[in-house]
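worker-03 picked up job from queue 'complexes'. Input manifest follows; two sequence lines, order preserved.
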Amino acid sequence: MTPPVAPGLLWTAWILVRKDLLLEWRSRARANALVFFSLSTLLLFSFALGPDTTFLKRAAGGTLWLAILLASVLALGESFRVEQENGALDGLRLAPADARALFLAKALANTALLVLVGAVLLPVLLALASVSPTLGLGRLAGVLVLGCLAISAPGTVYSAISSHARSRDVLLPLLLFPLLIPTVVAAAKATSLVFEGDPMLQFGSWLGLLAGFNVVYWSLGFALFPRVVED
Amino acid sequence: MLKNVRIALAVLALGLLIWAGYLGLVWAPADREMGDVQRIMYVHVPAMEMALLAMTLNFLCCVTYLFRPSWSMDSLAEAFAEVGLFFGGFGLVLGSIWGKPTWGTYWTWDPRLTSMAIGLVSYAGYLTLRRLVDDAERRAVWSAVVGIIIAVDVPIIYYSVRWWRSLHQMQSSPATVDPAMVRALRWNFLAFFALFVVFVMARYAIALARRRQEVTPPPLVLERAS
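worker-03 finished. Artifact:
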């Protein structure tokens, strides 16, 4: 009989992603809440900005990313609360699952959830702000995925930290929002360019900036996350 | 002994501030374009330099802590973050006051201003995190992780004026500035640096005392209340 072989880093991460998504699929409570929460924020932004359609059109990119950002705080905060019940996080660490695999899995699962939220929001936004993806749906999807990846990586690290702290619901956005300002600016700018056309060919550089943020945040998270969950 | 050093340094810093203030406000010539308003430079630039210095040192403390954990490194990181936040906030207000007469506005979404504002909010978040975690060891590790992540902004603040070439001017070199102005600026740097050291030492002592009080176990035999 051969002794059991520990699965590799990526395989562990894949198993954990499937576990998280399965949990999500079984209840669908969090995804439902997130979608409706972000839809109502989208409506609120439209009301707050007024009925001026030309202005709403210009603000569409920013509105979308603010709605996703606000939803991300809820999603990220919840993702480690689940692991704290019944000491599930300790169980995972003892399994033993590599902490870096845990980071990859959590961040990817959060990305998937945020992309889902964004995908539901987009058609509503297209109707509300009467914009259309002039540069094509492919580029829009690219911005959405890159932006959600860039939110999830630092968000996962910070939510692991703040889930153990006092008044965590205040702490997570306080830590996360300043860090994500440049990301949200880049994502919102790229989205507006998709909506309004890109005569100056700036789209590539904003997308590149977004990709750069991803490289920095994912490598920092990958390197530092084990120290966050160690005990 | 250490307390005497701190008092002596504080007196020295105060003396230097008065001397440098005299140089900046009276002795140095007024700027040809901006007039006397430009004298804000003598406090704005040193304050911002001290803020960036403190943020950089905080980053180094955080990295060091993750490799060689010690309470003194943790306390030093806390001291640098708070002193950096103070100097940065001070410098930002001074910059705003300078911006109104010269740029025509207190605030503009210039990359330098924006990145500095992001930095200040980040370090405020860092200090809040330290307040909200009760376990001293976890607090130290987590705030070190956060300190490393938010330090990404520090080089962006420094290089923003070169990368984007916006409203805020680039770093000047002494070669292009009037020697009298350079001299006044250098004295102000020295004064601010002395102040920086005084602040960091005081803040470090407070932080270390708090750590000591947190991690010291209670005495085995309770003393009888007399």
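worker-03 released lock.
The radius of gyration of chain B is 20 Å.
Chain B is about 75% helix and 0% strand.
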